[in-house]
Design brief:
The strands form 4 sheets. Strands 1, 2, 3, 4, 5, 6, 7, 8, 9, 10, 11 and 12 form a 12-stranded mixed beta sheet that branches. The longest helix has 27 residues. It is globular and about 80 Å long. It contains 21 helices and 27 strands. The chain is about 30% helix and about 20% strand. Bound molecules: zinc ion (ZN) (2 copies) and fe (iii) ion. The site of one zinc ion has 9 residues, from helix 3. Fe (iii) ion binds next to helix 12 and strand 19.
Length: about 700
């Protein structure tokens, strides 16, 4: 009996997730024989499995010339393969998947009906005789090759440096030989993507080690059935495969590679045949959702890909690759999507059923039932109609397949977010508007199932404050039901509004003007040259009168300012770029200590004033301070100031637990420093492990706040 209990966890199938395990005595019912009853009709407690990698058994069949599924790119069994992406309805049976049009051949049918077979009730079961088939198309949609010949032709094209769109689990990837600098440059040009890093796919961890260094947890995450992109440090001294190196254009100025291993039989075959790492970037044009239907991909990616490797098993639900980096022995999600979705997060308590629609950037939704929160795949930045439509589809699909009818809708407090408008358009349900940083706080508390009150250190780029200003460097005290703003960064003007986000030199000017007044343009800083001499008076007037310059306490913008001052970056081509490159610079530096800062107390709580720090950074730059050391001391200053404020809040409130959330905590160096300082002071520190600290985790916090609010 004890052995049986142990085996349930120890020998659980790879895709099984045991959410709880109880044992006890029940009276015998004199059953004879063993049967699995038909699905459906039971209490609605549906959980749908995420898409998973090929299992070892299937993998050995794939490469066994004697097996009837040798080199068949759609083999699968009950332990592996696509799930969430192919499910069209419930119950999870073949007619409710995109495998419905394929009738099983007698051999497949026999496996499907044999309880002793690994493919017993494997809904997507198929073989070359009865299942989906590969096709290679040119960009006009003309068929170039079919079946295994299509795969071999695609490999030859990739070797020649051509760009091939490959249909994967959750959408199309654009693949190119990662060792071919010209090909990578061409992909960047056609994708209109100047600097944002491309993800890589390597055949196995051995191959990853030839160009990156990884620790045991990074290796385990990479090899797990979820197959996320794992951020790993790029190898020292330009290690390459043999005498060829990964193109420097894959991840410029970054220090990290995002690497994943194959997760579909097709990718396993592709990587085995080509025997070199491939760039595998999402098949989209910047900011649009990833393409996932054949016709749509041909239409939208025709200007980028030379060829298309497609097949006739449809993707019903698109999902991007998940992205993880390791922090203190735990995974830290930057994006939680394919492989994890829609696995549930256990909430702190049973609550009413909520639909939470998230924020604007990195959109996701959350649906709850009882004490389970189901987070959707990454939908993207809700800045265009295509992404909004994708969010709407996600809402209705997840409600249907999880059989959840929410009784309340939660959304961000920002009146103009497209997600807020989507929430407003849902008829007949009460709405709860949740302040952005309160949602971050609640998300971090919820995944640790905390109760009561905590101090929330919420650092991000932007969020709508109840006072109408842009928040982002916030110290909150509270729980799910309420919060108080106990402190924040000293507000500075955001010159040009959204333009300041794309042009960090604007924040450098704003912060330096705040610190040393109108003489700012006399400073010997290259980034100030971004404003032409004739426009300087106008720029100063804009700052002084607050024209098109809303005040912001954003933490992300302080990182932007310092990045511009240090000459890291004056303009960015993707969100967070300046901060990411500043962190990479700081990682190479040494901190001799922190810069001065001040903490004052006003009507809005403690105010962290970084003006002394900016003056000290200028002095350091004018002396012979090395940029990487200044970058590192800056990180330490932010951490020290945050720990300082937490200490003051604890002295007044006796709350000793701190939750760290917000997109800035994707920064490993800062998180490490702040966690260390807080723990030295005896604080209990909580950071994210299950959902991203960025706005991709927002919906979870919204869901718990609305779920626990008095109806
Ligand atoms: Zn399998
Ligand atoms: Zn078959
Ligand atoms: Fe945020």
């Amino acid at each position: 009996m004890a052995g049986f209990l142990e085996a349930i966890t120890a020998e659980a199938p790879p895709l099984a997730v045991i959410s709880s395990l109880h044992s006890g005595d029940v009276p015998a019912v004199e059953e004879e024989g063993f049967a699995i009853l038909a699905s459906g009709g039971g209490e609605a407690n549906i959980q749908i499995a995420p898409d998973g990698d090929v299992c070892d058994d299937c993998l050995s069949e794939l490469f066994d010339p004697a097996d009837r599924r040798y080199r068949y790119p759609f083999l699968t069994c009950t332990n592996c393969g696509p799930r969430y992406s192919i499910i069209t309805g419930i119950p999870y049976d073949r007619p409710f998947t995109t495998m419905a049009p394929f009738a099983m051949c007698p051999a497949c049918r026999t496996e499907y009906e044999d309880p002793a077979d690994r493919r017993f009730h494997a809904q997507p079961n198929a073989c070359a005789a009865c299942g989906p088939r590969l096709r290679l198309l040119d960009k006009e949609g003309g068929e170039v090759a079919l079946g295994d010949a299509a795969l071999r032709a695609a490999v030859a094209l990739l070797r020649e440096g051509r760009i091939v769109a490959v249909k994967s689990t959750g959408g199309f990837h654009l693949a190119v030989d990662a060792l071919n600098d010209r090909a990578v440059a061409e992909l960047r040009r056609r994708k209109a993507r100047d600097e944002k890093p491309f993800a890589l796919m390597a055949g196995d961890v051995g191959s990853v080690r030839t160009f990156a260094s990884l620790d045991s947890l990074e290796e385990r995450l990479m090899e797990g059935p979820e197959r996320p992109i794992v951020l790993v440090r790029s190898g020292e001294g330009g290690a390459g495969t043999g005498d060829r190196e990964i193109s420097p254009r894959v991840a410029p100025a970054n220090g990290y590679f995002g690497v994943m291993l194959p997760s579909t039989p097709l990718q396993h075959l592709l990587l085995r045949d080509i025997a070199a790492p491939l760039v595998m970037t999402s098949g989209n044009i910047s900011d649009e959702p990833i393409a996932y239907r054949d016709a749509e991909a041909l239409n939208r990616l025709r200007g980028i890909a030379d060829f298309f490797l497609v097949h006739d098993r449809e993707i019903h639900t698109r999902s991007d690759d998940s992205v993880i980096r390791v922090f203190r022995g735990n995974p830290l999600f930057l994006r939680r999507s394919r492989g994890y979705v829609p696995r549930a997060v256990t909430l702190p308590a049973e609550q009413r059923s909520v639909l939470a629609v998230g924020g604007e950037l990195k959109g996701t939704i959350c649906l709850t039932r009882g004490d389970k929160g189901f987070m959707s795949q990454h939908v993207g930045d809700l800045k265009n109609a295509a992404t909004l439509r994708s969010l709407e589809e996600t809402v209705s699909h997840l409600q249907r397949v999880l059989e959840i009818t929410p009784s309340v809708v939660a959304h961000d407090l920002h009146p103009d977010y497209l997600s807020t408008r989507l929430a407003a358009d849902i008829p007949d349900l009460p709405k709860v508007a949740v302040q952005h940083h309160h949602a971050h706080l609640a998300a971090c508390m919820a995944e640790h199932r905390l109760d009561g009150e905590v101090i929330g250190v919420i650092f991000d780029g932007t969020g709508f404050g109840p006072d109408g200003t842009v928040w982002g460097g916030e110290f909150l005290l509270g729980g799910y039901r309420s919060f108080v703003r106990c402190g924040h960064f000293r507000p500075v003007p955001l010159p040009g509004g959204d333009m300041a986000v794309r042009e960090p030199f604007r924040m450098a000017l704003s912060c330096l003007h705040d610190a040393c007044g109108p003489e700012v343009f006399d400073l010997p800083l290259p980034c100030l040259g971004e404003v032409a001499p004739g426009e300087r008076r106008l720029f100063l007037a804009m700052l002084e009168r607050g024209v098109n310059s809303p005040p912001t306490s954003s933490c992300g913008r302080i990182f932007d300012a310092v990045a511009a001052i240090l000459g890291v970056r004056s303009r960015v081509t993707y969100e967070g770029q300046a901060a990411i490159e500043l962190e990479a610079l700081a990682e190479r530096g040494a901190a001799w200590g922190e810069y001065p800062y001040a903490v004052t107390t006003g009507d809005t709580g403690k105010v962290v004033d970084f003006r002394p720090m900016f003056m000290a950074i200028l002095a350091d730059l004018a002396g012979d301070g090395a940029r990487q050391d200044i970058a590192r001391c800056f990180h330490l200053t932010v951490a020290r100031a945050a720990a300082d404020v937490c200490g003051r809040i604890r002295a007044e409130s006796s709350v000793g637990r701190v939750a760290l959330s917000g997109g800035v905590f994707q920064n490993r160096l800062l998180t490490e420093m702040l966690t260390g300082l807080l723990e030295e002071e005896g604080f209990q520190v909580f950071s994210h492990r299950l959902v991203p600290p960025n706005d991709g985790g927002l919906a979870l916090g919204q869901a718990v706040i609305a779920g626990q609010a008095a109806p």
